[in-house]
Design goal:
The protein is mainly alpha-helical. The chain is 53% helix and 4% strand.
């Protein structure tokens, strides 16, 4: 079903596109309406004006409302106790996000949730490092006592060349000052992840650059870790971070790619406002003009 008003390219309402095999497409407008409900305008109005046909129409004793997010038409009974005479003017309405702006909102917030998880894990790790550094002497004495008891109970020395015992011995060998420095570094990185999360949640451009740089810096290290040994956690982390970096630099046009921020703003402006809704409105087809019947020829005079 082609739509449009002639002022721009035809737009297909979400969910009405021709499905492509093996190429699923997320309809973010439908996801938004599934989570928050439809955005209907004029449900409390006593009557409709001709200019309201874009989002509300009356037919057969019912009033049909158009969702301003997903373009679905919902049939409801006209209000029994209307609050206003007519729906608000277009200038008074704050339209919901749709199209690319809505997609970017959801994707950036998913990345923000990932950064919140990083923030919580790193904060807990930093707290553990500071606690360990503060009680290192007492913990080392307890560890030595437990190790000696194990050696006495087993009748011989415990294998200390590898495993958790070896790792704990290496940990206790680190100086207290270095532990505090490590704790400060981990805490600073946790703060960086928290700043990224807040900025991405609110769709800030600076947060996109900060997240891209903070992500791309660790990709060589992740590749080196994969070269040493592949595990499910390492592989998932690498793929996730690589996907985030590619999305930010490609879809968000960072560093001037594909026109940069100016081209991205133009895309967002095209998908927002009343003109975008008008372009996705169905246009009645022009009825075909019936052919003119041929005029019978006059008989020749004799």
């Amino acid at each position: 079903m082609a739509t449009g008003d002639g002022a721009g390219p035809a737009v297909i309402p979400p969910g009405a596109e021709q499905l492509r095999r093996f190429r699923p497409k997320l309809r973010y407008e439908l996801i938004g309406c599934g989570l928050h409900g439809h955005e209907l305008l004029g449900t409390d109005a006593a009557g409709l004006r001709p200019e309201d046909d874009l989002f509300a129409r009356e037919f057969g004793g019912l009033r049909w409302y158009r969702c301003l997010r997903c373009d679905s038409w919902i049939a409801l009974t006209p209000p029994a106790d209307p609050v206003t005479r007519f729906p608000p003017d277009r200038a008074e309405v704050t339209l919901p996000l749709r199209g690319r702006p809505l997609r970017d909102k959801y994707v950036l917030r998913l990345i923000s949730v990932d950064r919140v998880i990083h923030f919580l894990v790193l904060s807990a790790l930093a707290a553990a490092i500071f606690l360990f550094a503060g009680d290192k002497a007492a913990l080392n004495a307890d560890f030595t006592k437990i190790l000696n008891d194990l050696q006495g109970g087993l009748g011989g020395p415990v294998n200390q060349g590898h495993g958790i015992v070896h790792d704990l011995q290496r940990l206790f060998a680190v100086s207290t000052n270095n532990l505090y420095l490590l704790g400060v570094a981990v805490a600073a990185y946790a703060c960086l992840e928290g700043i990224e999360a807040v900025g991405l949640w609110f769709g800030k451009r600076w947060a996109e650059y900060l997240t891209f740089i903070a992500t791309i810096v660790f990709i060589p290290y992740e590749v080196d870790e994969l070269a040493k040994g592949i595990s499910a956690l390492k592989l998932i982390t690498f793929i996730l971070n690589l996907a985030i970096a590619v999305y930010l630099v490609w879809a968000k046009r960072l560093f001037g790619l594909h026109g940069g921020g100016r081209a991205e703003r133009a895309e967002h402006e095209r998908d927002t406002g009343w003109p975008a809704i008008e372009r996705s409105s169905p246009v009645p087809a022009t009825p075909p003009v019936p052919p003119t019947p041929p005029v019978p020829a006059k008989p020749a005079e004799r």
